[in-house]
């Protein structure tokens, strides 16, 4: 930034002087900080993405190359699998009992008290 103005997140150019900001544009179009390792919008690895000042104009926002798209899908699938496993663990903690099961259980306690 040439004027040292602090711009809001998502800006690609300074709102005061018009200078291009040092951001990394993900394929989804989100503007990330230079220190970001993954996109703050879609989670895609930014390791292989060139800073916007060196980026060719043919890479338009919203377009993925095949390797990046596959990586994005794999990240999403891993997150979905983890959430599914966590839900299964929670479901295992919850047991359902019919009224007959409850009556049998109370009957066993009653038999033990006598």
Q: What can you tell me about this protein's structure?
A:
The structure is a single chain. The chain is mostly helical and 114 residues long. The chain is 38% helix and 4% strand. It contains two helices and two strands. The protein has a two-stranded antiparallel sheet with strand order 1-2. β1 (24-25) and β2 form a beta hairpin. The termini are far apart. Residues 51-60 have low confidence and may be disordered.
Short note summarizing the structure:
The termini are far apart. With 114 residues, this protein is mostly helical. The protein has helices spanning 66-93, 99-113, and strands at residues 24-25, 31-32.
Shape: elongated
Judged by helices, strands and strand pairing, the structural class is mainly alpha
Give the number of DSSP strands: 2
Q: What is the percentage of strand-forming residues?
A: under 5%
| Helical amount | 25-40%
Distance between the termini: 84 Å
**Spatial strand arrangement across the major sheet:** 1-2
Query: Mean of the pLDDT scores?
Result: 76
Query: What Rg, in angstroms, do the CA atoms define?
Result: 27 Å
Give me the number of helical elements. Answer: 2
Q: How would you sum up the major sheet?
A: 2 strands, antiparallel
Low-confidence stretches: 51-60
Helix and strand succession?
Answer: EEHH
List keywords for this structure.
single chain, 114 residues, mainly alpha, two-stranded antiparallel ribbon, 2 strands, 38% helix
Task: Describe the protein's topology.
Elements: E1 24-25, E2 31-32, H1 66-93, H2 99-113
Antiparallel strand pairs: 1-2
């Amino acid at each position: 930034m040439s004027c040292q103005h602090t711009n809001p997140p998502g800006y690609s150019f300074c709102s005061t002087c018009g200078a291009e900001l040092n951001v990394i544009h993900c394929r989804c179009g989100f503007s990330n900080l230079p220190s970001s390792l993954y996109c703050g919008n879609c989670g895609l690895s930014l390791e292989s993405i060139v800073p916007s000042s060196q980026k060719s104009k043919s890479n338009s926002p919203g377009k993925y190359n095949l390797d990046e798209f596959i990586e994005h899908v794999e990240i999403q699938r891993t997150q979905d699998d983890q959430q599914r496993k966590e839900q299964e663990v929670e479901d295992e903690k919850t047991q359902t009992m019919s009224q007959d099961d409850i009556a049998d259980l109370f009957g066993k306690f009653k038999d033990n008290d006598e």
